[in-house]
Design brief:
Length: about 450
C-alpha cells in the first residue's frame, strides 16, 4: 500500500471513530471517551512551507518548460542548419566536380593551343625558308633580270617591258611571302598566349573548387557537432524537467496530506467543542434535577470556584510581557539571563512571566508549583487529553517537555508563549502536545 493510500485509510478510520464518538457524546455526555484523542495537526508553518515548496517546484517546472521549449526550437533550427550545410556541401562537391571537368577541358584547350602554336612555328619556318629561297633566286638571276642593270642592258623597249613584268611578278611573290611570315608569327604568339591563359584558368578553377569543397565539408561537420551538442542539452533538460515534475507531484501530495490532516483536526476540534457543550448542558440538567435549581453541593461549588479563581488569576495577566525565568506566586518578576535567545530579547530587564511562572501564579491559592514545566506535569493527576477540562494544564514536548499552558475549555488556552511576546489567550495547538493533561483541582 502506498503512503497516500495508507494516509487515506487512517483518515477514514479516524473519521469513523470520530463519528462514533459524537454519537456517544450525544447519547451519553458523561462518557469520558466520547471523542477520540486529537489527530495530528500540522502547524501553520508546516502548511505554509509545504505550499511554498509546491509553488517553488511549480515555478521550476514552468521555467524548465520554457527552457526546454527554447532548446527544442534551437534543436530544430540546428537540424535545419545541418540540412542546409549538407546541401551546401553537396553543392560544393558538384561545383568541384564541374571545376575539375572545366580544368580538364582547359588543359585540353591548352594542349590544342600548344599544338596550334607548334603548327604556327612550322608555318613560320616554312615562310622563313620560302623567303630565303626567293632571296637566293633573286641574287642568282640578278645578272639577267635583277636590279636596275636589267633595264639598262636591254636592247629594245620590248625586252625592257618583258623584264619589268618578270620583276613585278617576283616582287609580288616576295611581298606575299613576307605577309605570310608576319601572319605566322602573330598566329604563333596568339597561340602561345592562349595556351598559357587556358592553363592558368584551369589551375585556378581547380584550386578554388577544392577549397570550396573543403570549406563546405568543414561547415557540415561543425553543424553536425552543434546539433549533437544541442541534442544532448535538450535531453538533459527533458530529464531535469521530469525530475522536477516528480518533485512537484510529491510536494503537491504533501500539501494535500497536510491539508487533510488539518481538516481532520478541525473536524475533531468541532466534535470536541460539541462534546463540551453537551457536557455543560448535562451538568446544568443534573443540577436542576438534584436541587430544583438550587446551587451545587459544597464540594462541587468549591471545585468550580477554585477553577474559576485559577482562571481569573491567569486571565488578569493578559498582556504582561514574556520574561524567561519570570513570575512567582505573587505575580510577575524580572526575568533571568539564559546566555542565548532570552538575553537577545532582553528578558532579564523585563518584568513578566515565562510559561511555568504563569502556572505558579495561577495555582498559588491551590498548590505551590516548582518553576519547571517538566515537574509541573507530574504535580497532579494525569487525564487523557480527550477528557481535559477547564482548569487543567496542557503540556508540549514529546521528546522533552518545553511548554505548559492553562486550558480554558472550548479549544482555548492561556499561555506565556515565548520571548518577544505577551501573555495571551489562543487556540490549543495539538502539534507535539502530550497525550495527557494534568489536573490539580478535582
Amino acid at each position: 500500500m502506498t503512503t497516500q493510500s495508507s494516509t487515506h485509510a487512517r483518515g477514514r478510520r479516524w473519521l469513523a471513530a470520530l463519528a462514533v464518538g459524537v454519537v456517544l457524546a450525544a447519547g451519553h455526555p458523561a462518557v469520558g471517551q466520547a471523542v477520540p484523542p486529537p489527530p495530528p495537526n500540522p502547524s501553520d508553518e508546516e502548511l505554509k512551507s509545504s505550499r511554498w515548496q509546491a509553488r517553488k517546484r511549480a515555478g521550476e517546472v514552468g521555467e524548465l518548460t520554457n527552457r526546454l521549449a527554447w532548446a527544442t526550437a534551437r534543436l530544430n533550427r540546428l537540424r535545419d542548419e545541418v540540412a542546409r550545410k549538407q546541401e551546401l556541401a553537396n553543392k560544393a562537391r558538384v561545383d568541384a566536380q564541374r571545376a575539375k571537368e572545366k580544368a580538364a577541358e582547359a588543359k585540353r584547350e591548352a594542349k590544342n593551343a600548344r599544338n596550334a602554336s607548334r603548327a604556327a612555328a612550322r608555318k613560320l619556318a616554312m615562310a622563313e625558308q620560302a623567303k630565303d629561297e626567293f632571296v637566293a633566286g633573286s641574287y642568282r638571276q640578278g645578272s639577267t633580270i635583277g636590279g636596275l642593270s636589267a633595264y639598262l642592258s636591254s636592247d629594245n623597249p620590248g625586252e625592257v617591258l618583258a623584264r619589268a613584268q618578270v620583276l613585278s611578278a617576283v616582287s609580288a611573290s616576295q611581298l606575299d611571302a613576307i605577309e605570310k611570315l608576319k601572319k605566322a608569327r602573330i598566329a604563333k604568339a596568339n597561340a602561345d598566349a592562349a595556351a598559357r591563359k587556358a592553363l592558368q584558368v584551369a589551375e585556378q578553377r581547380k584550386a578554388e573548387a577544392e577549397e570550396a569543397e573543403r570549406a563546405a565539408q568543414a561547415a557540415f561537420t561543425e553543424a553536425v557537432e552543434a546539433r549533437k551538442s544541442q541534442y544532448s542539452r535538450t535531453a538533459e533538460l527533458q530529464a531535469e524537467k521530469q525530475r522536477v515534475a516528480t518533485l512537484l507531484w510529491r510536494a503537491q501530495q504533501k500539501v494535500r496530506g497536510l491539508e487533510n490532516q488539518r481538516q481532520r483536526y478541525e473536524e475533531w476540534l468541532a466534535a470536541k467543542r460539541r462534546e463540551e457543550q453537551l457536557k455543560a448542558r448535562q451538568a446544568a440538567l443534573n443540577a436542576a434535577g438534584n436541587g430544583g435549581g438550587a446551587a451545587p453541593s459544597g464540594s462541587s461549588k468549591s471545585s468550580n470556584a477554585l477553577i474559576e479563581e485559577v482562571v481569573a488569576r491567569a486571565m488578569s495577566q493578559i498582556g504582561v510581557p514574556y520574561a524567561w525565568g519570570g513570575g512567582n506566586a505573587n505575580g510577575p518578576t524580572y526575568g533571568i539571563r539564559d546566555g542565548g535567545i532570552a538575553d537577545a530579547y532582553g528578558d532579564y530587564k523585563k518584568i513578566g512571566f515565562d510559561c511555568s511562572g504563569l502556572m505558579i501564579y495561577a495555582f498559588a491559592k491551590v498548590k505551590p508549583l516548582p518553576h519547571y514545566s517538566g515537574y509541573q506535569y507530574h504535580a497532579g493527576r494525569q487525564v487523557p487529553l480527550s477528557q481535559a477540562r477547564r482548569g487543567d494544564m496542557l503540556f508540549w514536548g514529546r521528546n522533552g517537555i518545553h511548554h505548559v499552558a492553562l486550558y480554558l475549555g472550548n479549544g482555548q488556552m492561556i499561555e506565556a508563549p515565548q520571548s518577544g511576546m505577551h501573555v495571551r489567550v489562543t487556540s490549543v495547538r495539538y502539534d507535539d502536545i502530550l497525550p495527557y493533561a494534568t489536573r490539580l483541582i478535582e
